[in-house]
Amino acid sequence: RGTIGSAYDGDIAIDDVAFHNCGLKYLCNTTTETSCETEPKCINKTNICDFQPQCKDGTDETNCGTCDFEGPGTCGWTTNHPGVFKKMAGAQDYYGPGYDHSLGTGEGHYMIAESNWWHFADDNHTMEEISTPVFATTGKRCRIRMYYAADLGVNGTMTISVKNDAGSFIALSKTGNATGNWTFVTARLSEGTNVQVTIGLSIASSEYYESYWLAVDDIRFTDCDPGHLNGPGECDFELDTCDYSNLETRDDFDWTRHQGPTPSYNTGPKTDHTTLTDKGWYYYIETSYPRQPGDTAVAQSKWMTYGNTASDAEQCTLEFWYHMMGNHVGSLNVFKYTKKGYTLLRNLTQAQSDDWVEGRIPLSNDGAFKLEFEGIRGPEYEGDIAIDDIVEGARNGPPFLMIICAQLLS
After folding, report:
1. Which of 44, 97, 146, 280 has its CA 20 to 30 A from that of 182?
2. At a CB cut-off of 8 Å and minimum separation 6, what does 140 contact?
3. Sign of CA dihedral 194, 198, 204, 207
4. Are 262 and 325 in contact (CB under 8 A)?
5. Spatial distance between the Cα atoms of 177 and 162, rounded to a whole number of angstroms
6. How far apart are CA 239 and CA 179, in angstroms?
7. What is the sign of the dihedral through the CA atoms of 285, 286, 290 and 293?
């Protein structure tokens, strides 16, 4: 507190205020605020699980559903019947996948529910569920991505449902049978307020004596920040082509944003990868007439550089999904372009699978760069190539939190 003296020549100044060996913390308003774990900062409770880290250590977003279940707890997931949908490791006596997806070993953890008649009290329908905390808001592109393994029998069902202020809906449903192997699924959650996501296993009451099970692992929420559509270089092609555009020179034809099967027989995907339906969109090259063998199409991103949020740039990874099916598939090349020139990151040739396949490529930090996806037409028309769900992220901070490792250059 400064107090004015008797005349004008009485200025008072202070500088370099510091405390030593005190271990001081902010005294947060416990009604409306909470504190970060590793920094002296108070944040409003409405900022928890809003997909925008307010704490440098990310602890305000730690227990918000994104999880590989390797750390303590379940990352905010809660169950309607404690002890039935539970965190486990390794093989169970007579059910379960036997190993997790994150580590691929019996020591890795996952969440699993088993359906037996003694677990349920509802005479008409049965459901075991795990649910997220309530998210204050979610953006238009908000999506859950996860792996599941299951034995759903004949009528067992795995669902991903969403409840918000506007109501509730089923984002994804899988009924009957499963191989028991880990399978990737994704579902759009869309924008909303006071959003809660639930994963459930249900059986008909007539199947009380059957033993079904559902396991989930590596759950991730992406593009859920209402102010964030896609990260730099990322795209699911649902609304547009994001940061990607076709070259005007140096190639022969263009990539096309498309939904449903491609026009050519016996080639191309039937669905996109994002929604796994014929309503979803992807990027592909059409290789029928007038295309000729060896013709190329190049989709190029905007300039990007590595962001400050990745503490270790070597962790940065490009993840994308590709579809290459047909008797005459040519090549898909992924390039990284810098001021020093081109680096070939991945070369894929000939038919790979009549399914979407994941590609993962480490990205080293060597300055500003662009990404290019080059599709090359094979000898005949049965050679459509498609890409979808391009993501760039780094594993850092809380368990399985994928952070953006690149930022756009203006």
Report:
1. 280
2. 190, 191, 229, 239
3. negative
4. no
5. 24
6. 33
7. positive
Helices (H) and strands (E) in the chain, counts: 0, 26
Q: What's the CA gap between 3 and 286, in Å, rounded?
A: 79
Strands of the sheet with 370-376, listed across from one edge: 245-246, 296-300, 370-376, 331-338, 341-349
Cα-based distances in Å from 188 to 141, 168, 274, 344? 7, 13, 8, 32
CA distance 220 to 242: 21
How many whole angstroms separate alpha carbon 285 and alpha carbon 279?
18
Q: Are 88 and 96 in contact (CB under 8 A)?
A: yes
CA distance 331 to 318: 19
Identify the bridge partners of residue 299 per DSSP, sorted by sequence position.
Answer: 246, 373
Residue for token pair 């928890």 = 48
Q: How many CA atoms lie within 13 A of 224 on its CB side?
A: 31
**Torsion angle, alpha carbons of 175, 159, 126, 148, to 10:** 80
pLDDT by position in tens, the chain (length 410): 999 999 999 999 999 998 888 877 778 888 888 888 878 888 888 888 888 888 888 888 889 999 999 999 999 999 987 777 899 998 777 788 989 999 999 999 999 988 765 555 444 446 789 999 999 888 877 889 899 999 887 778 899 999 999 999 999 998 877 778 898 888 888 788 899 999 998 876 555 556 788 999 999 998 788 765 567 788 889 889 988 999 988 899 999 999 999 999 999 999 998 878 898 899 999 999 999 999 999 999 999 887 654 444 456 788 899 999 999 999 999 999 998 999 999 999 988 888 899 898 888 877 889 999 999 999 999 999 999 988 876 544 333 334 456 566 65
Instruction: Please name the residues in contact with 224: beta carbons below 8 A apart, sequence gap of 6 or more.
Output: 51, 135, 138, 139, 141, 142, 143, 189
Residue with tokens 């039937």: 270
State the sign of the Cα–Cα–Cα–Cα dihedral 226, 228, 234, 235.
positive
